[in-house]
Amino acid sequence: MSQPSPSPPRARTEVADDGSVILWVGGAWAAGTPLPEVAFRADRVCVRTDGLGLFDSSLPAWLHAHLRTVRSVDLADLPERLKALIRMAENVALTGTPDEGPGLLENIGSWGVESGSSWGRALEHIGHTALGFLRALVGRARVNWSELTLQMQTAGVDALPIVALLGFLTGLIMAYVGLIQLRQVGATVYVANLVALAMAREMGALMTGVIACGRTSTAFASQLGSMNVSQETDALRALGINPVEFLALPRILAVTLMVPVLSVFATFVGVFGGMLVACAGELSVEQYVTQAILAVSWRSFMAGFVKSIAFGFIAAWAGCYRGSVAKRSALGVGEAATSAAVLGITLIVIADAVFAVLFNLYGV
Amino acid sequence: MGREVLACENLCVGHGGRAIMSDVSFSLEHGRILAVVGPSGCGKSTLMRALSGLDEPVSGRSTLLGQDLAVATAGEREDTLRRLGFLFQGSALFSSLTLRENVELPIREFLSPPRRELRQLAEYKLALVGLSDAMDKLPSEISGGMAKRAALARALALDPEVLFLDEPGAGLDPVTASRMDELILRVREAFGTTIVMVSHEVPSILRTADYCVYLDTDTGRMGAYGPPRDLLTSDAHPRARAFFSQTHRT
Asked: What residues pair up with B13 in beta bridges, in sequence order?
């Protein structure tokens, strides 16, 4: 880059006898120093120099910006290097009309089409997953079964510490809150019922599902999204292997199997957490355990268990789906991970509401 | 022309202290285009990274823009790097930024011009490579050839004195690759930039390069240095000639 001289950049215009504008430029031009401002409207402009010193790209960039709309430009008086820098931009640049971008209506339309096709892609992915499971059952799917145990460890065993911590704290908090309310009616013994039933029927499954979304869905979306970027999924397709069967099925199966196990584990840890609070005050361990066992019927336990299977499936599917439709860029992978967590948690809460209505209808 | 911009003496480059290519010695004058050629895996990109100061050589000495990179302090290295432009093989555009923002980034960071000037400069650089109509697109929305041109515009953002181009024609069809060659020649003509490019596209090298460094993968040493047409025809460097003529035929 040329060194700037003490003389500042300057520009001025004058109107010639024939009506054209003469644009005079002079001084030293360096990017980062304040550049002069001129305004003119003309069909024909002649650029001339007046004591022009050293210059860098800021001068041709300034001229390019000011002369873009001028029909006829005379550069004959300019130094050869400046002429070359201006012409180079013009030769390759002025070959099309600038893209003005979409209007409001077009944006709304695009959003509608994109939303529709997004739901369409989601349904298509669910269909492919269901078909893949059926094909796997009859041994016709190409599934990477070696992934299954690895994913079961990652999504299940490795999640034990966080599930234990959150389950314990959930049970503990519920017992605290429950005790405060139940003490007012002299029914503190029912705190065991409250914690055990809530954990077994609702919180164990819901909490584990949400943890699976945060840990596993995002990981799946990143993994499959990165494979999209590096064209690994294209390579699978080229080999005649369905990426949903090969990549998604073992992941979905692993999480669907492990989340119920984690949910049961969270239930027990939560009940234990509640016991610590309850037994520190009014209840004996024996009382608490007896009440907890009496509170949770086999139906209630199974209700929570069935929900956790569904939540595990949803969490894994959301991750695999968002990863498979991720844009082929680092940004796209990040967006896929975020949207996988959001989609997974939203669907889990919706599914929980649907389960609540169904269980109520059928008296579960 | 005439001022020495880049020189190296018995340079040895590699990874983690392990030498890949040694005995590299040559010098390059201002405004010249040098092509580093050789078979895949011979260390072309590694040599370019060492010449530019991005990586340290295993041994030997090189000077770039009058700065001995072996003895340069971190600050001196940074100053030298600011006078260089890089076009990486995979374009390396920032995927979360539009093409305009990609070009604006180095200008804003190093020159901090007012908003209007920043825009003018970025638009001008993108116009130089023919991307005026795609300024507000993301890298994921453009073709490989356009990404290469956008990366070249970003490399030109700070008016570099030396441009390092890693496989500028890689992955491009012959027509687009030929346009890229024209663009490189026009950049040299308009900006007077010295250009070092890694390539194994012989037609492209013959079109653009003034000098050529041939890296011999069999001996692990620099095999030849000279104008590319001389290497293609001369008997003095049979390995280089064989490489050029075989690649040229295919």
From this structure: B21
